[in-house]
Amino acid sequence: MLIVYKQGCPYSRMALKEIKKRKIKFIKMTITENKELKNRNEMYNKIKKMTGHKTFPVIYKNNGKKIGGYSELMKYLSKVQ
Question: For the chain, how many structural domains are there in total?
Answer without folding.
Answer: 1
